[in-house]
Amino acid sequence: MSFTLPRYFLRFHLSFTSRTASTRAKNNHGYLFLAPKANTTKFTTASIPGDKPQKLSAEELLVVVGGGAAGVYGAIRAKTVASNLNVLVIEKGKLLSKVKISGGGRCNVTNGHCADNLVRYHYPRGNKELRGSFFNVHGPTDTMSWFVDKGVDLKTEDDGRVFPVSNNSSSVIDCLLSEAKCRGVSLQTEKLVTSASASASGKFLLKIEKRTLKSVELVEAYYLLIASGSSQQGHNLAVQLGHSIVDPVPSLFTFKIEDAQLVELSGVTFSKVIVKLKLENVQRNIPQLTQVGPMLVTHWGLSGPAILRLSAWGARYLYSSGYKGKLIVDFVPDLHVEDLKSMLSQQKNRFLKQKVLNSCPMELQLVKRFWKYILDREGLVGDTLWASVSNSSIVSIANLLKHCTFEVKGKGQFKDEFVTAGGVPLSEIHLNTMESRIQPNLYFAGEVLNVDGVTGGFNFQNAWSGGYIAGSTIGRLAAGNANLVGAP
Fold this sequence. Notes:
Blueprint (H helix, E strand, L loop, with lengths): L25 E8 L8 E8 L11 E5 L3 H13 L4 E6 L5 H9 L4 E2 L22 H4 L2 H10 L4 E3 L4 E4 L5 H14 L2 E4 L1 E8 L5 E7 L5 E6 L1 E4 L5 H9 L5 E6 L1 E5 L2 H4 L5 E10 L11 E8 L3 E3 L1 H9 L1 H6 L4 E6 L6 H14 L17 H11 L12 H12 L1 E10 L5 E5 L5 E2 L4 E2 L5 E3 L13 H29 L2
Parallel strand pairs: 3-4, 3-12, 4-8, 12-23
Antiparallel strand pairs: 1-2, 5-7, 6-7, 9-10, 10-11, 13-20, 14-17, 14-19, 15-16, 15-18, 16-17, 18-19, 21-22
Helix pairs in contact: 1-5, 1-13, 10-12
Protein name: FAD-dependent oxidoreductase 2 FAD binding domain-containing protein
InterPro entries: BaiN-like, BaiN-like_dom_sf, FAD/NAD-bd_sf, RsdA/BaiN/AoA(So)-like_dom, RsdA/BaiN/AoA(So)_Rossmann
Organism: Gossypium tomentosum (Hawaiian cotton)
């Protein structure tokens, strides 16, 4: 579609209604979308709370691309700092959709076991760059305080994950949408920002298409916050405005293991294992390719926090290796291999006439199905008695429990919570303001940047922190502009 961009003006319609002392006054400001001549001009009204009517200028419009955690949080923060600012959030789908499904529908808000100055260690992409003030400005404790202050009671589970006490993501969603409405943020869905350019005056000219109708709207804004997650939309807009993109690849995924016997263990969990990833294209030692934590056997392979963390740190290495490699698992990480051998030898001597399958050492706390899997891999059938187990077999069983190797044949997607490694390079962003180093008044927050965290609430914390910093910066600039406009 081609069209000529008409000269653009923002027109504001002001109205003021006096209320009682207990009710705040409210200004209604309409900002104009100009459409191509073939379509009808459309108006959208945003309600802006305030103590008195203010004359607004074209500079006081912020458009946020993306109605996820970073976008909505940033919009609320900008409007909180500058009530004079018009804030419009454009979302191509449903608002806060990833918030809704996070944590199995409970919403893993953040992680409560990490001090704000230590959070950065949980980001495979961004851990070096985020060593500054990023999380000190607005970290996990600030996030939790914000939601609690807004009426969302939170709880911290044993592994540090923070959830609403309701165990329902709707508590978080309702809080954010209610606060956005209260502040006067305009939220529009089923719309896609398809192009962005900066005019000679420094303002942004945006082309917005409605997904359900073949209509196009144009809007001019002084501030632009791109918080569109890993969507191609945000990457395209960033490139149009002069930024580069680190090619996105999947992060946080499960491992596909081709092992017919392992499939029979689907549902078996291990509270603590050590997993180590070996890839042909990675010869040097990378400490993060060894992880400790819970693991789950699924019908397609292996999952759980330890595997997901491993997939995040190894995301780019796994991508370049075609998601093929060797996974070495230590199922009894708290036991030295020599102690394990001694334990198995003692078990043999105590239960010579018992079947090995029915007599697993209790100290190992292994479920019978998994014990059978280990014995099968060693070639010991179910009727074998301990008396028939050779010392070499005991050594082999111990080594297998400490160094059990699996062939990784591919990846699975971690439910619907798809996270990517890649996006706008952090070197192109001022992390203390979230403003672009390339284009003034352009801001980024959330997963559109080349930042991704491990499982446990860290990706949301990146969104809250980035959105808060960007919103604060934009709000301060807008509030300063309003003071200049109102000065004699």
